[in-house]
Amino acid sequence: MKLSRAQKRKLTSILLSGALLIAAAVLDAVLHPVWWAALLLYIPAFLLAGHETLLSAGKNILRGQVFDENFLMSVASVCALVLGEHAEAVGVLLFGALGELFESYAVGSARRSVQALAKLCPDTVHLLRTDGSTEDVAAENAKADALFLVYAGERIPLDGVIVEGAAALDCAALTGESLPVEVEAGAEVSAGTINLNGLLKIRALRPAKESSAARILAMVEDASAKKAKSEAFITKFARYYTPIVVGAAVLLAVVPSLIFGNYTDWIYRALNFLVISCPCALVISVPLTFFGTIGGSARRGILFKDAAAIETLSKASAAAFDKTGTLTEGRLSLAEICPVGCTREELLSYAAAAEYGSTHPIAKAISENATVDSDVIAHSVELRGRGRTCTFNSHEIAAGCRRLFDEQGIHIPHAEENTTVVYVAADGQYRGYLTFSDQIKPDSAEAIAALHRADVSTVMLSGDNRNGAERVASSLGISRYRWGLLPEDKVSELSKLSAETEGKLIFVGDGINDAPSLAAADIGVAMGGIGSDAAIEASDVVLPGDNPLKVAEAVRISRKAMRIARQNIIFALGVKGLFLLLSAFGLTNMWMSVFADVGVSVIAILNAMRTLR
Fold first, then answer.
1. Catalytic site residue 322?
2. Which one from 306, 322, 438, 540 is the annotated catalytic residue?
3. pLDDT per residue over 303-315, tens digit each?
4. What is the pLDDT of residues 19-31, one digit of tens each?
5. Domain boundary residue among 544, 570, 593?
6. Residue 177's domain is classified under what CATH number?
7. Is 0.85 topped by the overall pTM?
8. Are 323 and 472 within 8 A, CB to CB?
9. Who has greater pLDDT, 36 or 575?
């Protein structure tokens, strides 16, 4: 159990106060007629245990913030001291301080789980000079395009592309995946991952403050800004609850005293009422539940954008998935080159020219097999969901799906419908087609099955042709799927699905071309999209890794968090309600009241801390 310096000081005060309380109680029992002798020990114990509570209450009163837990504890303890209940007066503050210490430790544990992310990246970079030597510079001073080295066993300090070398990377800190990832020259790597073996020469893609790890940390730090409805309820509840219970305690002390007399007994009951009514268990445990969930999930490669996202995801009953890059690898490979009236090389160069500058997986697959001179490419235009056109070596090139060719009146003599295909035309003449293959991710089938077990139905939305979409959907056990969809068509489909769904609707996309759909769904989940501004802005949950199983895990975690929050609310209100009634009828003493407050708080906090795991 690691304590901060302030927590150690608080623990020392509690132990000294406890020792003085025991000594005072013994002295009081031995020298009972000499009541002032024990008081000489009770007073220091009182001040040691409660100086922070009493000072906080005084400061808040001066600020106009009268009704809080410090005020309740202070009034109850001071009045108990005045009434001669010295041991109980010290006990209220002593156990209150112990509860605060436990609360501080619990919140600190949650914060440490988040702050650990800040250590993902080293502070220095082994910058490579032009003469081949290296210079260690601060990571924040390294610029994009800088070359740097990463030795075996070191963390990668900046996002970049490997120029030389090959290695296995431990990406668990970012993605939550335990298995190493093999990388080689040409592969993109993220800051915060660990080079397990080999020497890597890397070219930086962006400065440290824009790295994947920095984005993750910023997301987690900002996640507590937007409260869930449960948190907002507790905040509003505490605002009205505390003045009401103070008023009820005053009535309990005054009205029965006027009717029945024996004012000392009724004031004592009112003090018990005040101690029991402290809302600490709710005010601390519910926010801690969400904060702990955010921190614990971040370590597992699941980034909730805010607490509201946790609550919304827990109510999900349907999930719509993009296909390419989400359920499939998204790394298409060129399968066939089928020229018509030209050579294979010419057909490939036409397609490469049309797709030049595109980030689409098809464009990447083509560029891996052909290079073109960008100086002879002009008027490159992307036609969303249909393809691209350009001027290449004085030829008007079009490359895309059948819909593009129908729009341009170019006849395709045959149709390849069983695979992903790009048709190519030059100067209005059909010149052939290219086919591509894409593999289903190894965990996609289990991810869909896990969602079904969680009573979340699934739908697949794809821009691919019918047969390509059907092949993937049937392989994964998805009965509902849509094909041939443009980005705006996916948004329309999500609106229809949302109207049909009783609970909340999830959309899972790759975070690059799916920003409109991520924003349109009740809860947007971006996979592998931490480097995309569009993904971070449009989504509610980001999965830095590419494992679709994390979607089901995120649903499970969110539901667990909400169960814990509800348990704490019901438990705290139930126990406090019972003890408030008992105290009103004089069936509790101050020690029982302290348990009803501090004991309930500790149990609720312990329950909330389960989210850290």
1. yes
2. 322
3. 888 888 999 999 9
4. 988 888 888 777 6
5. 544
6. 2.70.150.10
7. no
8. yes
9. 575
